[in-house]
Amino acid sequence: MSKDRIDVKKTYKLFINGAFPRSESGRSYPIYRKGSKVLLAQPAQASRKDLRDAVRAAREARLKWQSATAYNRSQILYRIAEMMEGRRLQFVEEIMAQASLTKSVAEKEVSEAIDLWVWYAGWCDKVGQISGANNPINGPFYNFTSPEPIGVVGVFAESDSSLLGLVRAMAPALAGGNTVVVLASERYPLSAITLSEVIATSDVPAGVINILTGIRNELTPWLASHMEVDGLDISGEKSRRVEIRTLATENLKRVADFGSSTSPNRILALMDQKTIWHPIGI
Amino acid sequence: MAKVLRKVEMNQGRTSSSDLATDFGISDDRSLELFLKTLPGVDQVGVEARAAELATRSIKKESKSWAIDMAISMVDLTTLEGADTEGKVRSLCNKAHRPDPTDLGVPHVGAVCVYNDMVGIARSHLDAIGAKEIPVAAVSTAFPSGRASMEVKLRDTRDAIEAGASEIDMVIDRGAFLSGYYKSVFDEIVAIKKECGGRAHLKVILETGELVTYDNVRRASYLAMIAGADFIKTSTGKVTPAATAPVVLIMLQAVRDFFDRTGIQIGVKPAGGIRTSKDAIKQLVLVNEIAGPEWLNPRYFRIGASALLNDLLMQRMKMRDGYYASSNYVSVE
Questions:
Q1: A250 in B contact zone (CB under 8 Å)
Q2: B323 to A55: CB separation less than 8 angstroms, yes or no
Q3: Which of A222, A227, A247 sits opposite B325 (nearest CB)?
Q4: Has residue B7 been placed in a domain?
Q5: B119: domain range?
Q6: What is the CATH number of the domain that holds B215?
Q7: What is this structure's pTM?
Q8: A52, closest residue in chain B (CA to CA)
Q9: Of A45, A187, A233, A238, which has the maximum CB count within 10 A?
Q10: Is A22 inside any structural domain?
Q11: What pLDDT, in 10s, does the model give residues A122-180?
Protein backbone atom coordinates (compact mmCIF):
# COMPACT_ATOMS: atom_id res chain seq x y z
CA MET A 1 0.00 0.00 0.00
CA SER A 2 1.40 3.36 -0.97
CA LYS A 3 2.31 5.84 1.72
CA ASP A 4 0.44 8.54 -0.16
CA ARG A 5 -2.84 6.71 0.07
CA ILE A 6 -5.68 9.06 0.96
CA ASP A 7 -7.60 8.21 4.14
CA VAL A 8 -11.07 6.75 3.67
CA LYS A 9 -12.89 8.33 6.58
CA LYS A 10 -16.23 7.17 7.85
CA THR A 11 -19.26 9.45 7.71
CA TYR A 12 -21.20 9.05 10.95
CA LYS A 13 -24.88 9.29 10.02
CA LEU A 14 -28.24 8.74 11.68
CA PHE A 15 -30.02 5.39 11.85
CA ILE A 16 -33.69 5.66 10.93
CA ASN A 17 -35.95 2.89 9.66
CA GLY A 18 -33.05 0.58 8.87
CA ALA A 19 -31.29 3.19 6.72
CA PHE A 20 -28.43 5.59 7.37
CA PRO A 21 -29.58 9.06 6.31
CA ARG A 22 -27.80 12.33 6.97
CA SER A 23 -29.85 14.83 8.92
CA GLU A 24 -32.57 16.36 6.73
CA SER A 25 -31.25 19.70 8.01
CA GLY A 26 -27.85 18.93 6.49
CA ARG A 27 -26.15 19.78 9.80
CA SER A 28 -23.31 18.07 11.57
CA TYR A 29 -21.29 18.92 14.68
CA PRO A 30 -17.68 18.32 15.68
CA ILE A 31 -16.63 15.59 18.12
CA TYR A 32 -13.28 15.97 19.87
CA ARG A 33 -11.23 13.54 21.88
CA LYS A 34 -12.11 14.12 25.54
CA GLY A 35 -10.03 16.94 27.03
CA SER A 36 -8.25 17.83 23.79
CA LYS A 37 -8.66 19.63 20.48
CA VAL A 38 -8.23 16.52 18.35
CA LEU A 39 -11.15 16.37 15.93
CA LEU A 40 -12.48 12.82 15.67
CA ALA A 41 -15.53 13.12 13.43
CA GLN A 42 -18.45 15.25 12.31
CA PRO A 43 -21.55 13.16 13.08
CA ALA A 44 -24.98 14.22 11.86
CA GLN A 45 -26.85 16.72 14.03
CA ALA A 46 -30.44 15.48 13.96
CA SER A 47 -33.31 17.95 13.70
CA ARG A 48 -36.85 17.62 15.04
CA LYS A 49 -37.92 16.40 11.60
CA ASP A 50 -35.43 13.55 11.80
CA LEU A 51 -36.94 12.78 15.19
CA ARG A 52 -40.41 12.83 13.68
CA ASP A 53 -39.30 10.40 10.96
CA ALA A 54 -37.71 8.15 13.56
CA VAL A 55 -40.90 8.05 15.64
CA ARG A 56 -42.95 7.30 12.53
CA ALA A 57 -40.62 4.42 11.67
CA ALA A 58 -40.75 3.09 15.23
CA ARG A 59 -44.52 3.28 15.21
CA GLU A 60 -44.81 1.36 11.98
CA ALA A 61 -42.36 -1.30 13.17
CA ARG A 62 -44.30 -1.87 16.41
CA LEU A 63 -46.56 -4.59 15.14
CA LYS A 64 -43.75 -6.58 13.57
CA TRP A 65 -41.62 -6.54 16.74
CA GLN A 66 -44.51 -7.16 19.12
CA SER A 67 -45.92 -10.02 17.10
CA ALA A 68 -42.56 -11.78 16.89
CA THR A 69 -42.41 -14.49 19.52
CA ALA A 70 -40.45 -13.66 22.67
CA TYR A 71 -38.12 -16.52 21.75
CA ASN A 72 -37.47 -14.94 18.35
CA ARG A 73 -36.79 -11.52 19.91
CA SER A 74 -34.37 -13.20 22.23
CA GLN A 75 -32.51 -14.76 19.29
CA ILE A 76 -32.27 -11.42 17.55
CA LEU A 77 -30.89 -9.60 20.60
CA TYR A 78 -28.37 -12.40 21.02
CA ARG A 79 -27.45 -11.92 17.39
CA ILE A 80 -26.57 -8.28 18.16
CA ALA A 81 -24.10 -9.57 20.76
CA GLU A 82 -22.59 -11.97 18.20
CA MET A 83 -22.16 -9.21 15.65
CA MET A 84 -20.64 -6.86 18.21
CA GLU A 85 -18.07 -9.47 19.09
CA GLY A 86 -16.91 -9.41 15.47
CA ARG A 87 -16.49 -5.64 15.58
CA ARG A 88 -14.87 -5.56 19.00
CA LEU A 89 -11.73 -3.80 17.79
CA GLN A 90 -13.63 -0.93 16.22
CA PHE A 91 -15.68 -0.40 19.39
CA VAL A 92 -12.55 -0.43 21.54
CA GLU A 93 -10.78 2.11 19.34
CA GLU A 94 -13.75 4.43 19.26
CA ILE A 95 -14.19 4.35 23.02
CA MET A 96 -10.47 5.02 23.54
CA ALA A 97 -10.59 7.92 21.10
CA GLN A 98 -13.77 9.53 22.38
CA ALA A 99 -13.32 9.19 26.11
CA SER A 100 -9.51 9.18 26.29
CA LEU A 101 -9.51 5.79 28.00
CA THR A 102 -6.84 3.12 28.09
CA LYS A 103 -7.19 0.03 25.99
CA SER A 104 -7.89 -2.27 28.90
CA VAL A 105 -10.67 -0.03 30.25
CA ALA A 106 -12.21 0.25 26.80
CA GLU A 107 -12.05 -3.49 26.27
CA LYS A 108 -13.75 -4.07 29.57
CA GLU A 109 -16.56 -1.69 28.57
CA VAL A 110 -17.10 -3.48 25.25
CA SER A 111 -17.18 -6.88 26.94
CA GLU A 112 -19.69 -5.66 29.49
CA ALA A 113 -21.88 -4.19 26.74
CA ILE A 114 -21.86 -7.45 24.79
CA ASP A 115 -22.63 -9.47 27.91
CA LEU A 116 -25.49 -7.11 28.70
CA TRP A 117 -27.14 -7.88 25.35
CA VAL A 118 -26.83 -11.59 26.10
CA TRP A 119 -28.31 -11.06 29.56
CA TYR A 120 -31.34 -9.12 28.29
CA ALA A 121 -31.72 -11.53 25.35
CA GLY A 122 -32.22 -14.26 27.92
CA TRP A 123 -34.92 -12.28 29.68
CA CYS A 124 -37.15 -11.82 26.59
CA ASP A 125 -39.11 -15.03 27.08
CA LYS A 126 -38.83 -15.06 30.87
CA VAL A 127 -40.31 -11.76 32.02
CA GLY A 128 -43.76 -13.12 31.26
CA GLN A 129 -43.08 -16.05 33.53
CA ILE A 130 -41.91 -14.06 36.52
CA SER A 131 -44.49 -11.29 36.33
CA GLY A 132 -47.47 -12.97 34.68
CA ALA A 133 -50.06 -14.74 36.79
CA ASN A 134 -53.05 -17.02 36.80
CA ASN A 135 -55.23 -15.10 39.25
CA PRO A 136 -57.58 -16.97 41.58
CA ILE A 137 -61.14 -15.67 41.26
CA ASN A 138 -64.57 -16.56 42.54
CA GLY A 139 -66.35 -17.70 39.37
CA PRO A 140 -66.17 -20.06 36.39
CA PHE A 141 -63.39 -18.11 34.70
CA TYR A 142 -59.69 -18.20 34.16
CA ASN A 143 -58.09 -14.85 34.86
CA PHE A 144 -54.64 -14.26 33.43
CA THR A 145 -52.29 -11.34 33.80
CA SER A 146 -49.47 -10.99 31.33
CA PRO A 147 -47.04 -8.17 30.53
CA GLU A 148 -47.25 -6.59 27.08
CA PRO A 149 -45.08 -3.94 25.44
CA ILE A 150 -46.35 -0.36 25.65
CA GLY A 151 -45.29 0.61 22.13
CA VAL A 152 -42.77 3.25 21.14
CA VAL A 153 -40.21 4.16 23.80
CA GLY A 154 -37.95 7.20 23.70
CA VAL A 155 -34.59 6.31 25.20
CA PHE A 156 -32.06 8.82 26.57
CA ALA A 157 -28.66 7.16 26.46
CA GLU A 158 -26.32 7.97 29.34
CA SER A 159 -24.46 11.13 28.37
CA ASP A 160 -21.09 10.35 30.00
CA SER A 161 -20.68 6.86 28.53
CA SER A 162 -19.83 5.81 24.99
CA LEU A 163 -21.26 2.33 24.70
CA LEU A 164 -22.27 0.70 27.95
CA GLY A 165 -24.65 3.48 28.96
CA LEU A 166 -26.30 3.25 25.58
CA VAL A 167 -26.86 -0.50 25.73
CA ARG A 168 -28.01 -0.29 29.35
CA ALA A 169 -30.74 2.12 28.33
CA MET A 170 -31.99 0.55 25.11
CA ALA A 171 -31.74 -3.21 25.68
CA PRO A 172 -34.51 -3.48 28.35
CA ALA A 173 -37.03 -1.56 26.24
CA LEU A 174 -36.32 -3.87 23.29
CA ALA A 175 -36.42 -7.03 25.37
CA GLY A 176 -39.96 -6.11 26.42
CA GLY A 177 -41.04 -5.86 22.77
CA ASN A 178 -41.04 -2.08 22.43
CA THR A 179 -39.60 -0.22 19.47
CA VAL A 180 -37.20 2.58 20.36
CA VAL A 181 -36.03 6.01 19.35
CA VAL A 182 -32.65 6.54 21.01
CA LEU A 183 -30.98 9.87 21.64
CA ALA A 184 -27.29 9.02 21.68
CA SER A 185 -24.82 10.68 24.03
CA GLU A 186 -24.09 14.16 22.74
CA ARG A 187 -20.35 14.03 23.48
CA TYR A 188 -19.72 10.34 22.71
CA PRO A 189 -22.02 9.50 19.77
CA LEU A 190 -19.59 7.46 17.64
CA SER A 191 -20.16 4.12 19.37
CA ALA A 192 -23.90 4.59 18.92
CA ILE A 193 -23.55 4.82 15.15
CA THR A 194 -21.19 1.86 15.00
CA LEU A 195 -23.72 -0.04 17.11
CA SER A 196 -26.43 0.86 14.59
CA GLU A 197 -24.27 -0.68 11.84
CA VAL A 198 -24.20 -3.82 13.94
CA ILE A 199 -27.96 -3.68 14.40
CA ALA A 200 -28.52 -3.26 10.66
CA THR A 201 -26.84 -6.65 10.14
CA SER A 202 -28.47 -8.48 13.06
CA ASP A 203 -31.96 -9.41 11.77
CA VAL A 204 -33.54 -6.54 13.71
CA PRO A 205 -36.52 -5.45 11.55
CA ALA A 206 -36.17 -1.95 10.09
CA GLY A 207 -37.62 0.75 12.33
CA VAL A 208 -37.44 -1.24 15.57
CA ILE A 209 -34.30 0.63 16.62
CA ASN A 210 -33.70 4.22 15.51
CA ILE A 211 -30.67 6.14 16.74
CA LEU A 212 -30.26 9.90 16.54
CA THR A 213 -27.08 11.83 17.23
CA GLY A 214 -27.13 15.56 17.88
CA ILE A 215 -27.75 18.24 20.47
CA ARG A 216 -29.90 16.89 23.32
CA ASN A 217 -31.42 20.26 24.14
CA GLU A 218 -32.87 20.53 20.65
CA LEU A 219 -34.39 17.08 20.55
CA THR A 220 -35.48 16.45 24.13
CA PRO A 221 -38.68 18.54 24.20
CA TRP A 222 -39.89 17.13 20.86
CA LEU A 223 -39.33 13.56 21.98
CA ALA A 224 -40.87 14.12 25.42
CA SER A 225 -43.99 15.78 23.97
CA HIS A 226 -44.51 13.58 20.91
CA MET A 227 -48.01 12.08 21.15
CA GLU A 228 -47.00 8.89 19.35
CA VAL A 229 -44.34 8.03 21.90
CA ASP A 230 -45.78 5.80 24.63
CA GLY A 231 -42.95 5.71 27.12
CA LEU A 232 -39.63 7.28 28.02
CA ASP A 233 -36.55 5.90 29.73
CA ILE A 234 -34.84 8.94 31.22
CA SER A 235 -32.29 6.99 33.24
CA GLY A 236 -29.49 8.47 31.17
CA GLU A 237 -30.68 12.08 31.21
CA LYS A 238 -29.37 14.28 33.98
CA SER A 239 -30.84 17.65 32.99
CA ARG A 240 -34.37 19.00 32.31
CA ARG A 241 -35.92 16.01 34.06
CA VAL A 242 -38.88 17.92 35.47
CA GLU A 243 -39.56 19.44 32.07
CA ILE A 244 -39.45 16.02 30.43
CA ARG A 245 -41.87 14.57 32.96
CA THR A 246 -44.19 17.55 32.53
CA LEU A 247 -44.24 17.24 28.73
CA ALA A 248 -44.81 13.50 29.06
CA THR A 249 -48.09 14.02 30.91
CA GLU A 250 -50.07 15.15 27.86
CA ASN A 251 -50.53 11.58 26.63
CA LEU A 252 -49.66 9.89 29.94
CA LYS A 253 -46.32 8.48 28.83
CA ARG A 254 -44.77 5.92 31.11
CA VAL A 255 -41.52 7.39 32.42
CA ALA A 256 -38.88 4.96 33.65
CA ASP A 257 -35.87 6.09 35.65
CA PHE A 258 -33.34 3.53 36.84
CA GLY A 259 -30.01 5.34 36.84
CA SER A 260 -27.38 2.91 35.63
CA SER A 261 -28.81 -0.21 37.21
CA THR A 262 -29.38 -3.48 35.41
CA SER A 263 -32.52 -5.35 36.35
CA PRO A 264 -35.47 -7.24 34.88
CA ASN A 265 -37.58 -4.51 36.48
CA ARG A 266 -36.26 -2.21 33.79
CA ILE A 267 -37.98 -4.43 31.21
CA LEU A 268 -41.22 -4.57 33.19
CA ALA A 269 -41.27 -0.81 33.78
CA LEU A 270 -41.84 -0.36 30.05
CA MET A 271 -44.58 -2.98 29.81
CA ASP A 272 -48.28 -2.93 30.61
CA GLN A 273 -49.89 -5.62 32.71
CA LYS A 274 -52.89 -6.85 30.73
CA THR A 275 -55.57 -8.93 32.38
CA ILE A 276 -57.73 -11.34 30.40
CA TRP A 277 -60.87 -13.18 31.51
CA HIS A 278 -61.71 -16.46 29.86
CA PRO A 279 -64.67 -18.73 30.66
CA ILE A 280 -63.73 -22.20 31.88
CA GLY A 281 -64.85 -25.02 29.61
CA ILE A 282 -64.83 -23.18 26.30
CA MET B 1 -63.30 4.58 -37.85
CA ALA B 2 -66.66 6.31 -38.21
CA LYS B 3 -68.42 2.95 -38.21
CA VAL B 4 -67.35 2.26 -34.65
CA LEU B 5 -68.89 5.46 -33.34
CA ARG B 6 -71.83 4.98 -31.13
CA LYS B 7 -75.09 6.59 -32.11
CA VAL B 8 -75.03 9.61 -29.89
CA GLU B 9 -75.57 12.95 -31.49
CA MET B 10 -73.07 15.57 -30.46
CA ASN B 11 -75.68 18.27 -30.56
CA GLN B 12 -77.63 16.72 -27.73
CA GLY B 13 -75.09 18.17 -25.28
CA ARG B 14 -75.39 21.51 -23.56
CA THR B 15 -75.79 24.16 -26.25
CA SER B 16 -72.44 25.66 -25.33
CA SER B 17 -70.64 22.36 -25.86
CA SER B 18 -71.60 22.24 -29.52
CA ASP B 19 -70.84 25.94 -29.82
CA LEU B 20 -67.55 25.25 -28.13
CA ALA B 21 -66.77 22.45 -30.53
CA THR B 22 -67.52 24.80 -33.40
CA ASP B 23 -65.28 27.45 -31.86
CA PHE B 24 -62.47 24.93 -31.80
CA GLY B 25 -63.23 23.99 -35.45
CA ILE B 26 -64.54 20.56 -34.50
CA SER B 27 -67.47 19.18 -36.46
CA ASP B 28 -66.74 15.49 -37.02
CA ASP B 29 -64.34 12.76 -36.03
CA ARG B 30 -61.70 13.90 -38.54
CA SER B 31 -61.61 17.47 -37.31
CA LEU B 32 -61.58 16.33 -33.68
CA GLU B 33 -58.65 14.02 -34.32
CA LEU B 34 -56.85 16.77 -36.23
CA PHE B 35 -57.40 19.21 -33.38
CA LEU B 36 -56.15 16.83 -30.70
CA LYS B 37 -53.20 15.59 -32.72
CA THR B 38 -52.05 19.12 -33.51
CA LEU B 39 -52.04 20.25 -29.89
CA PRO B 40 -48.48 21.19 -28.96
CA GLY B 41 -46.53 18.18 -27.66
CA VAL B 42 -45.52 18.04 -24.01
CA ASP B 43 -41.84 18.44 -23.22
CA GLN B 44 -41.48 15.44 -20.92
CA VAL B 45 -38.16 16.41 -19.35
CA GLY B 46 -39.25 20.02 -18.99
CA VAL B 47 -42.57 19.25 -17.32
CA GLU B 48 -41.01 16.78 -14.89
CA ALA B 49 -38.27 19.23 -13.98
CA ARG B 50 -40.78 22.04 -13.47
CA ALA B 51 -42.97 19.84 -11.27
CA ALA B 52 -39.96 18.72 -9.24
CA GLU B 53 -38.77 22.30 -8.84
CA LEU B 54 -42.16 23.48 -7.58
CA ALA B 55 -42.21 20.60 -5.09
CA THR B 56 -39.17 22.07 -3.33
CA ARG B 57 -40.86 25.34 -2.38
CA SER B 58 -40.53 25.96 1.32
CA ILE B 59 -43.80 26.94 2.97
CA LYS B 60 -43.65 29.19 6.01
CA LYS B 61 -45.74 28.63 9.10
CA GLU B 62 -48.62 31.08 8.47
CA SER B 63 -48.96 29.99 4.85
CA LYS B 64 -48.89 26.37 5.94
CA SER B 65 -51.70 26.82 8.37
CA TRP B 66 -53.76 28.56 5.65
CA ALA B 67 -52.87 25.82 3.18
CA ILE B 68 -53.92 23.04 5.55
CA ASP B 69 -57.38 24.55 6.04
CA MET B 70 -57.70 25.20 2.31
CA ALA B 71 -56.69 21.61 1.56
CA ILE B 72 -59.24 20.26 4.06
CA SER B 73 -62.00 22.26 2.38
CA MET B 74 -60.91 20.81 -0.98
CA VAL B 75 -60.95 17.15 0.02
CA ASP B 76 -63.48 14.94 -1.70
CA LEU B 77 -63.70 12.49 1.16
CA THR B 78 -63.91 9.18 -0.61
CA THR B 79 -64.77 5.59 0.08
CA LEU B 80 -64.87 3.31 -2.95
CA GLU B 81 -64.57 -0.21 -1.64
CA GLY B 82 -66.55 -3.32 -2.36
CA ALA B 83 -66.77 -3.71 1.41
CA ASP B 84 -68.44 -0.31 2.00
CA THR B 85 -71.35 -0.49 4.40
CA GLU B 86 -74.10 1.98 5.22
CA GLY B 87 -72.51 2.49 8.60
CA LYS B 88 -69.16 3.29 7.09
CA VAL B 89 -70.72 5.81 4.70
CA ARG B 90 -72.58 7.48 7.56
CA SER B 91 -69.46 7.81 9.67
CA LEU B 92 -67.66 9.17 6.62
CA CYS B 93 -70.41 11.81 6.35
CA ASN B 94 -69.99 12.72 10.01
CA LYS B 95 -66.31 13.14 9.43
CA ALA B 96 -66.90 15.24 6.30
CA HIS B 97 -69.09 17.60 8.31
CA ARG B 98 -66.89 17.84 11.43
CA PRO B 99 -63.45 16.51 10.51
CA ASP B 100 -62.22 17.14 14.05
CA PRO B 101 -65.11 17.00 16.53
CA THR B 102 -62.91 18.60 19.21
CA ASP B 103 -62.19 21.66 17.10
CA LEU B 104 -65.10 23.40 15.41
CA GLY B 105 -62.68 25.75 13.67
CA VAL B 106 -61.86 23.03 11.14
CA PRO B 107 -63.72 23.63 7.86
CA HIS B 108 -65.93 20.93 6.35
CA VAL B 109 -64.60 19.01 3.36
CA GLY B 110 -65.46 19.70 -0.30
CA ALA B 111 -67.71 16.71 -0.89
CA VAL B 112 -68.38 13.10 0.00
CA CYS B 113 -67.57 10.71 -2.84
CA VAL B 114 -69.21 7.26 -2.88
CA TYR B 115 -70.46 4.52 -5.18
CA ASN B 116 -73.91 4.98 -6.69
CA ASP B 117 -75.86 2.76 -4.33
CA MET B 118 -74.54 4.70 -1.33
CA VAL B 119 -75.57 8.12 -2.65
CA GLY B 120 -79.01 8.10 -1.06
CA ILE B 121 -77.63 7.06 2.30
CA ALA B 122 -74.93 9.72 2.21
CA ARG B 123 -77.35 12.45 1.09
CA SER B 124 -80.00 11.72 3.69
CA HIS B 125 -77.44 11.39 6.47
CA LEU B 126 -75.72 14.65 5.55
CA ASP B 127 -79.10 16.39 5.53
CA ALA B 128 -79.98 14.84 8.86
CA ILE B 129 -76.82 16.10 10.58
CA GLY B 130 -77.26 19.61 9.20
CA ALA B 131 -74.67 19.40 6.47
CA LYS B 132 -76.89 20.29 3.52
CA GLU B 133 -74.08 22.39 2.05
CA ILE B 134 -71.84 19.35 1.52
CA PRO B 135 -72.47 17.84 -1.92
CA VAL B 136 -72.45 14.11 -2.61
CA ALA B 137 -70.36 12.99 -5.57
CA ALA B 138 -71.12 9.66 -7.22
CA VAL B 139 -68.77 7.62 -9.35
CA SER B 140 -70.96 6.59 -12.27
CA THR B 141 -70.70 5.18 -15.79
CA ALA B 142 -69.50 1.72 -14.78
CA PHE B 143 -66.70 3.01 -12.59
CA PRO B 144 -63.79 2.23 -12.51
CA SER B 145 -63.32 0.45 -15.85
CA GLY B 146 -66.07 2.15 -17.84
CA ARG B 147 -66.75 -1.12 -19.62
CA ALA B 148 -70.51 -1.07 -20.12
CA SER B 149 -72.97 -0.10 -22.81
CA MET B 150 -74.02 3.51 -23.22
CA GLU B 151 -77.55 2.77 -21.99
CA VAL B 152 -76.16 1.34 -18.78
CA LYS B 153 -73.88 4.32 -18.27
CA LEU B 154 -76.72 6.78 -18.81
CA ARG B 155 -78.98 4.87 -16.46
CA ASP B 156 -76.19 4.69 -13.89
CA THR B 157 -75.84 8.46 -14.04
CA ARG B 158 -79.57 9.11 -13.78
CA ASP B 159 -79.81 6.76 -10.80
CA ALA B 160 -77.13 8.66 -8.93
CA ILE B 161 -78.69 12.04 -9.64
CA GLU B 162 -82.13 10.88 -8.62
CA ALA B 163 -80.68 9.55 -5.37
CA GLY B 164 -79.30 12.99 -4.59
CA ALA B 165 -75.85 13.22 -6.17
CA SER B 166 -74.97 16.74 -7.25
CA GLU B 167 -71.62 15.79 -8.69
CA ILE B 168 -71.03 12.96 -11.14
CA ASP B 169 -67.54 11.50 -11.52
CA MET B 170 -67.57 9.68 -14.87
CA VAL B 171 -64.80 7.60 -16.39
CA ILE B 172 -63.85 7.88 -20.04
CA ASP B 173 -63.53 4.84 -22.27
CA ARG B 174 -59.72 4.55 -22.22
CA GLY B 175 -59.78 1.68 -24.68
CA ALA B 176 -61.55 3.82 -27.26
CA PHE B 177 -59.30 6.78 -26.52
CA LEU B 178 -56.10 4.76 -26.96
CA SER B 179 -57.48 3.22 -30.17
CA GLY B 180 -57.95 6.71 -31.54
CA TYR B 181 -61.77 6.68 -31.42
CA TYR B 182 -61.80 10.18 -29.98
CA LYS B 183 -65.25 11.03 -31.27
CA SER B 184 -66.72 8.07 -29.46
CA VAL B 185 -65.19 9.25 -26.17
CA PHE B 186 -66.32 12.80 -26.92
CA ASP B 187 -69.90 11.77 -27.62
CA GLU B 188 -70.09 9.76 -24.43
CA ILE B 189 -69.09 12.76 -22.36
CA VAL B 190 -71.62 14.92 -24.22
CA ALA B 191 -74.35 12.38 -23.54
CA ILE B 192 -73.53 12.06 -19.84
CA LYS B 193 -73.35 15.84 -19.57
CA LYS B 194 -76.81 16.05 -21.05
CA GLU B 195 -78.05 13.51 -18.53
CA CYS B 196 -76.58 15.65 -15.75
CA GLY B 197 -78.33 18.70 -17.19
CA GLY B 198 -78.39 21.51 -14.67
CA ARG B 199 -78.76 19.05 -11.80
CA ALA B 200 -75.23 17.84 -11.35
CA HIS B 201 -71.65 18.92 -11.96
CA LEU B 202 -69.73 16.62 -14.27
CA LYS B 203 -66.21 15.50 -13.40
CA VAL B 204 -64.51 13.55 -16.15
CA ILE B 205 -61.92 10.99 -15.00
CA LEU B 206 -59.12 10.63 -17.54
CA GLU B 207 -57.35 7.78 -15.71
CA THR B 208 -53.97 9.22 -16.64
CA GLY B 209 -52.18 6.12 -15.35
CA GLU B 210 -53.57 4.28 -18.39
CA LEU B 211 -53.05 7.02 -20.96
CA VAL B 212 -49.33 6.16 -21.34
CA THR B 213 -48.01 9.54 -22.52
CA TYR B 214 -48.17 13.15 -21.36
CA ASP B 215 -49.35 14.11 -24.85
CA ASN B 216 -52.37 11.88 -24.32
CA VAL B 217 -53.08 13.56 -20.98
CA ARG B 218 -53.16 16.93 -22.72
CA ARG B 219 -55.37 15.57 -25.51
CA ALA B 220 -57.79 13.91 -23.12
CA SER B 221 -57.99 17.11 -21.05
CA TYR B 222 -58.99 19.18 -24.07
CA LEU B 223 -61.36 16.53 -25.31
CA ALA B 224 -63.15 16.44 -21.97
CA MET B 225 -63.28 20.21 -21.58
CA ILE B 226 -64.68 20.81 -25.05
CA ALA B 227 -67.22 18.03 -24.58
CA GLY B 228 -68.61 19.81 -21.53
CA ALA B 229 -66.75 18.65 -18.41
CA ASP B 230 -67.02 20.94 -15.39
CA PHE B 231 -63.99 19.26 -13.82
CA ILE B 232 -61.23 17.09 -15.17
CA LYS B 233 -60.02 14.44 -12.75
CA THR B 234 -56.79 12.50 -12.95
CA SER B 235 -57.66 9.03 -11.81
CA THR B 236 -60.06 6.54 -10.34
CA GLY B 237 -57.65 5.72 -7.54
CA LYS B 238 -57.72 2.09 -8.65
CA VAL B 239 -54.71 2.38 -10.96
CA THR B 240 -51.14 3.40 -10.18
CA PRO B 241 -49.52 5.75 -10.97
CA ALA B 242 -52.36 8.12 -10.17
CA ALA B 243 -52.12 11.86 -9.53
CA THR B 244 -48.43 12.47 -10.22
CA ALA B 245 -47.23 16.07 -10.14
CA PRO B 246 -46.34 16.31 -13.87
CA VAL B 247 -49.78 15.03 -14.87
CA VAL B 248 -51.55 17.51 -12.60
CA LEU B 249 -49.31 20.24 -13.96
CA ILE B 250 -50.31 19.43 -17.55
CA MET B 251 -53.99 19.41 -16.62
CA LEU B 252 -53.67 22.73 -14.79
CA GLN B 253 -51.99 24.22 -17.87
CA ALA B 254 -54.85 22.91 -19.97
CA VAL B 255 -57.59 24.50 -17.83
CA ARG B 256 -55.67 27.78 -17.72
CA ASP B 257 -55.23 27.87 -21.51
CA PHE B 258 -58.85 26.82 -22.01
CA PHE B 259 -59.98 29.64 -19.74
CA ASP B 260 -57.88 32.20 -21.58
CA ARG B 261 -59.38 31.09 -24.87
CA THR B 262 -63.04 30.57 -23.94
CA GLY B 263 -63.62 32.34 -20.63
CA ILE B 264 -64.92 29.08 -19.14
CA GLN B 265 -63.23 28.05 -15.89
CA ILE B 266 -62.91 24.28 -15.55
CA GLY B 267 -61.90 22.64 -12.28
CA VAL B 268 -59.18 20.06 -11.68
CA LYS B 269 -59.32 17.11 -9.30
CA PRO B 270 -56.23 15.03 -8.63
CA ALA B 271 -57.14 11.73 -6.97
CA GLY B 272 -55.14 8.75 -5.80
CA GLY B 273 -51.79 8.67 -4.04
CA ILE B 274 -52.13 11.98 -2.19
CA ARG B 275 -51.76 10.83 1.39
CA THR B 276 -49.79 13.41 3.34
CA SER B 277 -50.20 17.10 4.10
CA LYS B 278 -46.94 17.66 2.29
CA ASP B 279 -48.33 16.07 -0.89
CA ALA B 280 -51.47 18.20 -0.61
CA ILE B 281 -49.54 21.42 -0.11
CA LYS B 282 -47.38 20.60 -3.12
CA GLN B 283 -50.59 20.31 -5.13
CA LEU B 284 -51.69 23.75 -3.93
CA VAL B 285 -48.34 25.20 -4.99
CA LEU B 286 -48.89 23.73 -8.45
CA VAL B 287 -52.39 25.22 -8.61
CA ASN B 288 -51.17 28.67 -7.65
CA GLU B 289 -48.16 28.66 -9.95
CA ILE B 290 -49.63 26.98 -13.02
CA ALA B 291 -53.36 27.72 -13.14
CA GLY B 292 -53.36 30.77 -10.89
CA PRO B 293 -54.90 31.86 -7.59
CA GLU B 294 -58.41 31.87 -9.13
CA TRP B 295 -58.25 28.07 -8.88
CA LEU B 296 -57.38 28.07 -5.16
CA ASN B 297 -61.00 27.47 -4.29
CA PRO B 298 -62.95 24.27 -3.63
CA ARG B 299 -65.20 25.21 -6.57
CA TYR B 300 -62.30 24.74 -8.94
CA PHE B 301 -59.88 22.41 -7.21
CA ARG B 302 -60.61 19.24 -5.31
CA ILE B 303 -58.43 16.47 -3.98
CA GLY B 304 -59.84 12.97 -4.07
CA ALA B 305 -58.57 11.20 -0.96
CA SER B 306 -59.41 9.26 2.17
CA ALA B 307 -56.25 8.88 4.29
CA LEU B 308 -55.13 12.45 3.52
CA LEU B 309 -57.72 14.05 5.78
CA ASN B 310 -56.28 12.43 8.92
CA ASP B 311 -52.79 13.62 8.08
CA LEU B 312 -54.07 17.15 7.51
CA LEU B 313 -55.85 17.04 10.87
CA MET B 314 -52.71 15.80 12.60
CA GLN B 315 -50.64 18.57 11.05
CA ARG B 316 -53.26 21.06 12.16
CA MET B 317 -53.14 19.73 15.73
CA LYS B 318 -49.35 19.92 15.69
CA MET B 319 -49.45 23.57 14.63
CA ARG B 320 -52.09 24.36 17.25
CA ASP B 321 -50.55 22.47 20.19
CA GLY B 322 -46.85 22.84 19.46
CA TYR B 323 -46.07 19.13 19.67
CA TYR B 324 -46.36 16.18 17.30
CA ALA B 325 -49.84 14.67 17.14
CA SER B 326 -50.87 11.03 17.30
CA SER B 327 -53.14 9.07 14.99
CA ASN B 328 -54.81 7.79 18.17
CA TYR B 329 -56.64 11.11 18.30
CA VAL B 330 -58.21 11.06 14.82
CA SER B 331 -60.96 8.71 13.72
CA VAL B 332 -60.03 5.71 11.63
CA GLU B 333 -62.66 6.27 8.95
A1: yes
A2: no
A3: A227
A4: no
A5: 26-329
A6: 3.20.20.70
A7: 0.88
A8: B324
A9: A233
A10: no
A11: 999 999 999 999 999 999 999 999 999 999 999 999 999 999 999 999 999 999 999 99
